[in-house]
Fold this protein.
Amino acid sequence: MKLGGVPAFAAAALAAAPALAQTTPQDRAREAAAMLTAAGFTVRPNQIQNLCGRPAQPRPTAVDLNGDGRPEAIVTDAGDAACYGPGGVKAAVIVREPSGWRLIGGAMGPIKVLPTATRGWRDYTIDAPGCQPVWAWNGQDYTLKSNCPAGGAPPARTAAAPSAPPAGNAADRTAALRAAGFTAVRGRYPACDTSQEVTIEMRDLNGDGRQDAVVTDYGTACFGMTGQGYVIVTKDAAGAWKQLFGNQGIPTFLPTRGVGGWPDIENGGPGFCFPVMRWNGRDYAIIRRKAYQPGACAGR
């Protein structure tokens, strides 16, 4: 069984998971092809292709995320900024189940496994400088846990770097939360799941020099299996905060932009087909869909 880049991937998988040494070369090639398919790659007769249909060279790393003695795999592909964004890296987390390999998580960037755990599975983040998101196990797969890992800090500035707008004073944060539709109850801002609080991130999203804010709400009762929603609010030239957009899902702000410099949003959630939305001056409208598994967006 010769499947282009699969033998090389199988060799890397063998190094990552020595148990494969007990199988035949044909079995290893079949297992490698199954791992690649679960991780969102397409296996062609002469090459492995990424989600954009371009040649890829993914590499697996074995990590026992849940301490059961059987390693999961983190499959990382690098070097395609046009497909994966500025960092040019995409990683997928897959697990071997009786029915075969299954995708359970991923990130646009190299994955770093953290010492913390949720429901017995290790949390992970993106291995990059500055404040990075954290994903946690929800019982079925990995979902966003927080916008930054504990102790995360913004990347250090260089002398040549432009000054970022201030993070927002208490009055700005209160006004932004109020504009997003949240009211303090005994000094806290309860989420849909009242055992949690909403979170707020202050940043200049559209590059106009004024602060905007992304307020994130949590709770399956309001947001279904996604478990999360968000509201974007912005501060106008007169200093008043107003709501720009709200949606169910996990927003990833992309480098491409719409009217007024507002960034496109990849709206994450359950499954492997995510809409990409662009601001048209009135609303964020879907302009395309991004598949993280072959055929995931077929017919949508």
